[in-house]
Hints:
The protein is α+β, with helices and mostly antiparallel strands.
Amino acid sequence: MRFTPTVRNLNKLLDLKSLKMLDHYSQFNPSPLTIKQFMEFGRTATEEESFTFLRKEIPVRLSNIMKEINLLPGNLLQMPSVLIVQGWYAQSFIDLVEFESSSPTDLVNLAQFCQTLKTVQTRHTNVVQTMAQGVLELKESHMVDNQTDMAIQYFLDRFYMSRISMRMLIHQHTLLFEPDADKDTPRIGMIDPHCKVKSVIMEAFQNAAFLCESYYDCAPDIEIKGQTLVKNADGKKVGLELVYPPPHLYHILFELFKNSMRATVETHSKSHELPEIEVLVAKGEHDVSIRVSDQGGGIPRHITDHLFHYLFSTAPRPSMTPTKAPLAGYGYGLPLSRLYARYFHGDLILNSYDGYGTDAVVYLKALTHEATELLPVFNKTSTKQYKSSIPTADWTDPTFSGSSRGFTPPTSPGSSSRKVVTTAV
């Protein structure tokens, strides 16, 4: 399958001035922030400072991923749903670069920027489903060889991670500075300085159980063990807390509970009693770990390799426009959940025991200065990934891709740095 020149669809979506702006912004690396920086910025920064940072940073992140979209196989780029997504991204880029030279002290500019961010957020609401639909359209109309499939999987990880990061930036700004922003909340934008881990576990479990019961008329119970209580500075036992965006943790756990419940109910459909889902919580100096264990029969090893493969599911695929929330089947729940975990340098791993059950372990950074955004970087080495399986340095953390060749990371997380690119050997 042929690979397209980088500008094929962009020429149709952007005028000459916007294309030049795209080239300009894509020369810069995204600037990964730590949770500590998000917190400090949210507590002390003014709306003008946030505006000045985001009017550059979001176009940098947009341009990096827009350039990469056009490295995809030509047939995929022509799928109707992929064209829709490209149109959304092009319009959002045009909308945001309008503010490049706007005065940060003009209150009208600040209000318009905040509204533009909310418009972008709304425009991109269905990006995940629409891009997934585009891949389905390709698979239903063309033969997809292994190299093409690998390129698509590689891209979707980067594309969806980029989306998570931009939504984080947009949410932080709008939650802090929109006209009706809640000034009394203890949260700093999306981040809760006192995210109660057990509370998020229980909320995700109860909502997954409600969904499970609507399909199967039953759901397993939960047993939570481990360090749900820790000693504070005064020596008193208090609920385990984490500085983290609760919606991200909820998203991960809700997906894991849905999978465990479906497996448990279907495996024990003839039993009088369902085995509990066991959750173990642990906190160390560097990590908070949450293990979700079920007795849902496990998964054979030859299938576990595919569980983080987009559009792979062990359940029948439901409608792309369902009348009620599906329990499973789309095939992007687990890979997306792993991205949410990895976004701040955590992880999600699965250990399955065929014939018995599955353990899913979520790792989160316990220290805010270690919880750094993991962002895709577009450069000549990332281009190689679409044509070969050689690891390249194409994330903001060079160690993540297993190689430090071919890319110099930003020297300061506070401002985008111009790329220094060498070709991987």
